[in-house]
Amino acid sequence: MEAASGPFNDVLNLEDMREAARRRLPRAIFDYIDGAAEDEVSKRRNRRQFDEWGFVQRVLNDVSAIDLTVEIFGNRFAAPFGIGPTGLAGLAWPKAETLLAREAEKAAIPFCLSTVSSVRLEDVADATAAPNWFQLYIFRDRDLSRSLVERAKAAGYSVLVITVDCPTGGNRERDPRNDFTLPLRATRRNVANTAIRPGWLLRLARCGAPKPENMVEAARAAAGSAQGLVAFMNSQLDPSVTWRDVEEFIGLWDGPVVIKGLLSVKDVERAAELGARGVVLSNHGGRQLDGGISPLTVLPDARKVAGEALTIICDSGFRRGTDIIKARALGADLVLMGRNTLYGAGAGGAPGIAHVISILKSELTRAMTLLGTATIGDIAAEHVHYLGAAGHV
Question: Which residues take part in binding glyoxylate (predicted)?
Answer without folding.
Answer: 32, 137, 172, 260, 284, 287
